Predict the structure.
Amino acid sequence: MPPPPPGTEPGPRTASVARRPTLKDVAGEAGVHPATASRALNPGTRHLVNDETAQRVLQVADTLGYQPNPIARSLKTARSASIGLVIPDLTNPLFPPIVRGIEDVLGGVGYNAWIVNTDNDPARETAAVESLRSRSVEGFVFATGRLHHPFIERLAAGGTPTVLVNRRLAVSDIPSVTGDDAGGVAIAMRHLVDLGHRRIVHLAGPQDLSTGVNRLRAFRQALEDHGLEDSPARLKLCSAWAESAGAKAVTELLDDGVEFTAVLAGNDLLALGCYDALAGRGLSCPGDVSVVGFNDMPFVDKLSPPLTTVRIPHYELGAEAAHLLLERLRAPDRTTRSILLPLTLVDRQSTAPPRLL
Amino acid sequence: MPPPPPGTEPGPRTASVARRPTLKDVAGEAGVHPATASRALNPGTRHLVNDETAQRVLQVADTLGYQPNPIARSLKTARSASIGLVIPDLTNPLFPPIVRGIEDVLGGVGYNAWIVNTDNDPARETAAVESLRSRSVEGFVFATGRLHHPFIERLAAGGTPTVLVNRRLAVSDIPSVTGDDAGGVAIAMRHLVDLGHRRIVHLAGPQDLSTGVNRLRAFRQALEDHGLEDSPARLKLCSAWAESAGAKAVTELLDDGVEFTAVLAGNDLLALGCYDALAGRGLSCPGDVSVVGFNDMPFVDKLSPPLTTVRIPHYELGAEAAHLLLERLRAPDRTTRSILLPLTLVDRQSTAPPRLL
DNA sequence: CTGAAAGCGCTAACAC
DNA sequence: GTGTTAGCGCTTTCAG
């Protein structure tokens, strides 16, 4: 049965008019004490009450359209069936699927997520978390992790159930769900090497983020594995995951006369900037240079050429993070663990002509 | 001063250890009654208390790091300084900027937004709204409006402060903030006509949404204004704002031998599908057909050719919606009004060769 | 101007 | 099994 239409209820049979029915109303109508009604309504305590009485209470609650008041419940229990979800920037297409994954899992067990946007501002982050804690959220999922992040470290150390998603901290005892960046870089590099590339450039992302350092480290490892020279000139550190940073890096490479036939971009936005810079110099892609990105953002299949990229299962990242947090809420003392999800190469240029070196 | 680091407070001088200080703690420390402390802490009632005492209370609250408990406050006042924000699909890049606009404005006056994703599912919507109402949100912003939407109509009619953003309802007494679709279509059509187009097709969006019908109506109006024939063949109704729907529509047009040199797509996703279908038939763009979209989604400037589109100021839409709702919360009886924000053409093909008809 | 007392709606000891 | 009581932390009458 759908909940009663808001604002237009004819009113329960009790005296009051348009007020939402309270537990006391239900109890009164069912002829029991509010405490009994509470026990009957609560699945966890229902066994404490006579089966018949319980049924009657449920029945009355249903006809009255009773909905427990979560505020009152929170005040009493200091729990809220909700968690905080801290996102650096919702307009980055990376994050909405993570949010969806988290919400879907939480929703399945009656939990909600408070979503907050920090805009990458630590002050906003601390303020938001403080505000959420005062609302008795039971735990947090952070998508804002930095390698060194004292605030989250303290929060977790203080016993607040905390899970990281997409990005990890350097201290590793906080559970996290991330993509297997090392594995992703490995398949991307193998792809490039298989195409014949020997001079591959890496546009590395911010080195205060686990994604940035892990992909860079894996890039170096891959160079070694494939017997390629690890030339400092073929590495560009980008200070932000932004198109402009990618464009700047590639422009500098070209200006410096660095020779390369392929680019492993730390993510798709850097790859986009790379496209821009190459086009700006009249270089064709993949004719002159092959580019591989990271994330498989929406619409990168519409670029010309379509961007080959390493797909990260963001929805699943979120779903797993939610599971991890729920598990932690149920069994706070279980040892923590982190989850690495496999990445896959989305090859959109497999029909491209072999590289001319 | 930053809030005390979570979980590691040395503890206030009162007996308790890691507990958050309560109003009673502050009152005790300041040597006043909790009620007085409450009055002093609350800007609205501060004038009721002696200036010195008030200062002392504020001082103590500060050193103790006191943060009022919003749950207790909500239980007492049935207010929450928060509103519900109902989004059909957060992964649609349209909506995150709206969310940001709303949050920025609300945050400025101490309000929060609960964001819920309905996934376009009415059942999820009613459930989410019910849940938010029970959390005492003070009002709602809906981005899920449909022309006929009994649920929202009842909610608003029942007195719940409600604002629509991006999409309106047919009943117009619910305040809304939307883009000026008619104006947007007019400039888009003028653009196409100025390029020399006479046979222009419209891919119309869902006709249960205000955006869909308004753009279609404006398209017809523009045909009339420019003295162009309003041929039913040059109109395609798409049942969803989706790439696939746009592709299907254009494919059908081509199959049916409909002659056209330009397409006004109801939004960018339909335009994307249009690109696909044209490419699939070996037609070049803008060589053979010009396309104009709607929204200026991220990265449509990266398509080839870059998509000319009507930009909707989504962030501002959100910001205005928040203002409207806040105004409504403050003065519930003021007459409602709706806001139309101007749209602008983002011409990315102005250098394109003139059309060969 | 301040204190006392009540109560928002619910749950958890503790009786019976 | 069920009722009684108390209280989560706050605001708001009502006295004084």
